[in-house]
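Hi support team,

I've been running sequence recovery on a batch of backbones for a student project. Most finish fine, but this one hangs at about 90% for roughly twenty minutes before it completes. I'm not sure whether the input is malformed or the queue is just slow. I've pasted the structure tokens below so you can try to reproduce it. Let me know if you need the job ID as well.

Thanks,
M.K.
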């Protein structure tokens, strides 16, 4: 989503990490680590004003096995897979890197500061009876599009508290539905399918653009931050949440790494 990895220079100073939990009672016991990374000599490509927070997310322990999905009653979906598909509860890469972690600035952005949402929609696609993406973000006021690439009925349901819940039924392939934008920040809005119990996705709704989703190698980048002290939260659907405090001065880059305990 926010894919660029910037060179991390001088990122050790002033980074503090706290392991306190937050409103999510599912927070794991492990404390996040604040390990500075040694920056490769990559070109510093940040032309946008502001500071950058980069980091890696990983986990300790053994990742739970993702349940397999029985798609035998949905042949059109099943035929899209060479092997038995699984749920995507824990998507892990090499060296225990953890994907699908929603990392965002939880606090520290001045309350009065307004950010214009992109006019391009965030798209979720139902393909192979799974959601793509599985974890993603959107800004308040940004269009949200729901696509169906399967020749089967999907009925996506948004389970929201701060936002209005909704249902969208899409009985055939090629359907596209644009929803009115979300109106309030909410981490996370749960999306699920009323037809296929295994279909789940998680959407972080934010009032600013300071969020990212960790990639397969666990990396994330949040850029364009004005100077300030920020609470960064990392959210994972199974492993809970962790927070770190990062102070940005000028246009510097800082590192915030997170380590979850698998359970
Ligand atoms: Cu479905």
């Amino acid at each position: 989503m926010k894919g660029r990895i910037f060179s991390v220079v001088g990122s050790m100073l002033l980074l503090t990490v706290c392991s306190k939990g937050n409103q999510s009672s599912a927070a794991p016991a492990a404390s996040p680590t604040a390990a500075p990374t040694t920056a490769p000599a990559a070109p510093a490509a940040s032309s946008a004003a502001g500071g950058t927070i980069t980091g890696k997310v990983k986990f300790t322990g053994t990742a739970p096995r993702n349940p397999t999905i029985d798609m035998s009653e949905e042949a059109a979906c099943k035929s899209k897979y060479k092997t038995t598909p699984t749920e995507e509860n824990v998507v892990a890469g090499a060296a225990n890197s953890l994907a699908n972690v929603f990392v965002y600035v939880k606090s520290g952005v001045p309350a009065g500061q307004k950010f214009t949402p992109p006019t391009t929609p965030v798209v979720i696609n139902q393909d192979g009876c799974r959601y793509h993406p599985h974890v993603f973000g959107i800004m308040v006021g940004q269009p949200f599009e729901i696509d169906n690439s399967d020749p089967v009925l999907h009925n996506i349901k948004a389970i929201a508290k701060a936002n209005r819940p909704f249902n969208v039924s899409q009985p055939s392939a090629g359907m596209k539905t644009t929803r009115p934008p979300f109106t309030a920040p909410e981490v996370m809005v749960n999306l699920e399918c009323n037809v296929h119990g295994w279909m789940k996705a998680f959407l972080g709704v934010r009032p600013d653009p300071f969020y990212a989703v960790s990639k397969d190698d666990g990396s994330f980048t949040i850029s364009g931050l004005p100077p300030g002290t920020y609470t960064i939260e990392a959210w994972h659907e199974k492993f809970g949440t962790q927070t770190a405090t990062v102070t940005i001065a000028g246009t510097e880059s800082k590192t915030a790494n997170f380590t979850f305990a698998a359970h």
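--
Follow-up from support: It reproduced on our side and the slowdown came from queue contention, not your input. The first strand starts at residue 51 and ends at 60. No action needed from you.
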